[in-house]
UniProtKB/TrEMBL annotation:
This is HD-GYP domain-containing protein. It comes from the Bacteria. It comes from Alkalicella caledoniensis. Keywords: Membrane, Transmembrane, Transmembrane helix. InterPro entries: HD/PDEase_dom (IPR003607), HD_GYP_dom (IPR037522), MASE9 (IPR048430).
C-alpha cells in the first residue's frame, strides 16, 4: 500500500512537471541554446561530484548552477538544468557507479520532477516580483532574489517531506521542519554562489564562468579531502573502540547500547543537531580510555581494591587525552572526560556539578548506568529494567541531572524493544 501511494505521489508530481514544462517553455522559452547547453553540462559535472558526508547527506553545488541558469536564462532553462543534472549525473559509490540506467525509474522521476517544479516556480516568482532575467542589474532586485530562493527551499523541503511522510507515516510537519532547517543555510550559501556565477556570466560571458568554476572544483576537492581525513580518523577511533570490546569481554556491545539509549534521551530532550551529532560520537566512544587499563582489572570477577578503583577512575582522562588533539574531536573529548561526573559534585575526575557538566555528558552518564545495571558484569548477573529505572529515579538530583533522569525513565518505561525489532525487520 505504501509503495502504491508513493508511486501515485511521484506520478502526480511528474504530471505537474510536464504541465509546467510546456507552460514555461511557451511563456519564457530558450533565448540561447548555447547557454542551456553550458548550464546543463556544468550541473551534470557538479552533481556527479557530490560529496557524501558521514551522516549520508550529499553536498553539491548544483543548486548554484540552477540559480545561475534561472537568473540568466529564465525559469524554463533553470528548471530544465536542474532536472538534467539530477537525471544524468554519474556518482561513484562503494559498489561502482550510480547513473540513470541502474537507478530505479521512480527515484529518477521523483528527483527530476520535484526539482523541475521547485526551480520553475522559483523562476516564475523571481520574474513576477520584478526580477530581470539576463540583465546585470538583476543583482539590485534583492526582494525578488530572496523571495524566489525562499520559495525554492519551501517547495523542495515540502516535496521531500511528503514522500517521507508517505513512506514512514511520521508527522509531515516534523519532517518538513527538519528538512527546512537543513536546506535554509545550504541554500543561503550555495544560492549566493549562484548569484555570483550569474553576474559573472552576464558581465563577462562563458569564460568568466569557467574561470570561476575552476576554483569552485578545487574547493570541492579540498573539502572532499577533509571529509575523507575525518572519516579515516573515525574509522581508526572505532577500530580502537572495537578492540576495547574485545579487551573487556563482559561489556561487549556496551558502547552501541549506550549510544542507542543516549540518542533516545537526547532526542527527547530536544538537543540541537550539533549536540546530537556530538552525543552520537561521544556515547559510542565514552569508554575509549579503558584501552589504557589493565585487563586483569577490567575483567576481575571479584570486588575491586581501592587502588584498582582509582585506576579505573582514570579512564575518562585517558579517553580525553586520546581524542583532545584531534581538531574535530575536541568537543567529544570534553564530553567523554566528564561522563562520570555527578550532579551533586561527587563524581570524577574534576568533581564539577550541576550545569557545569555538559548536557551530553549527563545524558551518557544515565545511559551508561542503565546499561551497566541491565547487563552481565564480572561480579554479578544482569538486573531487571525496572530495577535500573528505579535506581535512576532515586538518584535524580544527586547522581543524575533531575530533568534528564525523569525523561529517561519515562521514555524507557514506554519503550518496547521487541516492537522496534519487528518494525525494523
Amino acid at each position: 500500500m505504501k509503495k502504491n501511494n508513493m508511486l501515485l505521489y511521484i506520478f502526480s508530481l511528474t504530471l505537474l512537471s510536464i504541465i509546467l514544462f510546456f507552460f514555461t517553455l511557451s511563456k519564457y522559452g530558450v533565448a540561447s541554446f548555447t547557454s542551456l547547453l553550458l548550464w546543463c553540462i556544468l550541473i551534470i559535472i557538479t552533481d556527479s561530484l557530490v560529496i557524501e558526508l558521514p551522516n549520508g547527506v550529499g553536498v553539491s553545488v548544483g543548486l548554484a548552477i540552477t540559480i545561475a541558469a534561472i537568473f540568466t536564462a529564465g525559469p524554463f532553462v533553470g528548471a530544465l538544468t536542474a532536472a538534467c543534472g539530477v537525471s544524468f549525473k554519474i556518482v561513484k559509490n562503494n559498489t561502482g557507479y550510480s547513473h540513470i540506467f541502474n537507478t530505479p525509474y521512480y527515484k529518477t522521476l521523483f528527483n527530476a520532477s520535484q526539482l523541475f517544479i521547485s526551480s520553475s516556480i522559483t523562476g516564475i516568482v523571481f520574474t513576477t516580483l520584478g526580477g530581470t532575467v539576463g540583465d546585470q542589474n538583476f543583482i539590485f532586485s534583492l526582494p525578488p532574489i530572496l523571495f524566489s530562493l525562499l520559495c525554492y527551499v519551501v517547495l523542495n523541503s515540502s516535496f521531500i517531506a511528503a514522500l517521507l511522510f508517505i513512506m514512514s507515516g511520521e508527522s509531515f510537519f516534523k519532517l518538513w521542519f527538519k528538512n527546512l532547517k537543513g536546506l535554509l543555510p545550504n541554500t543561503a550559501g550555495v544560492g549566493t554562489i549562484g548569484v555570483i556565477i550569474a553576474l559573472a556570466y552576464i558581465s563577462y560571458g562563458v569564460g568568466a564562468v569557467l574561470l570561476f568554476f575552476g576554483p569552485l572544483l578545487l574547493s570541492r576537492y579540498s573539502y572532499k579531502l577533509y571529509v575523507e581525513l575525518r572519516q579515516t580518523y573515525m574509522e581508526t577511533i572505532n577500530a580502537l573502540n572495537k578492540s576495547m570490546d574485545a579487551k573487556d569481554t563482559y561489556t561487549s556491545g556496551h558502547a552501541t547500547r549506550v549510544q542507542k539509549y543516549a540518542m533516545m534521551l537526547g532526542q527527547a530532550a530536544k538537543l540541537s543537531s550539533k549536540q546530537l551529532d556530538n552525543l552520537k560520537t561521544a556515547s559510542v566512544l565514552h569508554d575509549i580510555g579503558k584501552i589504557g587499563i589493565d585487563d586483569s582489572i577490567l575483567n576481575k570477577p571479584g570486588k575491586l581494591t581501592d587502588q584498582e578503583f582509582s585506576t579505573i577512575h582514570k579512564h575518562p582522562i585517558i579517553g580525553y587525552d586520546i581524542l583532545r588533539n584531534v581538531d574535530f574531536l575536541k568537543d567529544i573529548a570534553v564530553i567523554i572526560k566528564y561522563h562520570h561526573e555527578r550532579y551533586d559534585g561527587k563524581g570524577y575526575p574534576d568533581q564539577i556539578s550541576g550545569s557545569e557538566i555538559p548536557v551530553e555528558s549527563s545524558i551518557i552518564a544515565i545511559a551508561d548506568t542503565f546499561d551497566a545495571i541491565t547487563s552481565d558484569r564480572p561480579y554479578r548477573k544482569k538486573l531487571t529494567k525496572e530495577f535500573a529505572l528505579k535506581e535512576i529515579a532515586n538518584n535524580a538530583g544527586r547522581q543524575f541531572e533531575p530533568t534528564l533522569a525523569k525523561t529517561f525513565v519515562e521514555i524507557v518505561t514506554n519503550y518496547n524493544e521487541d516492537e522496534e525489532a519487528r518494525h525494523v525487520s
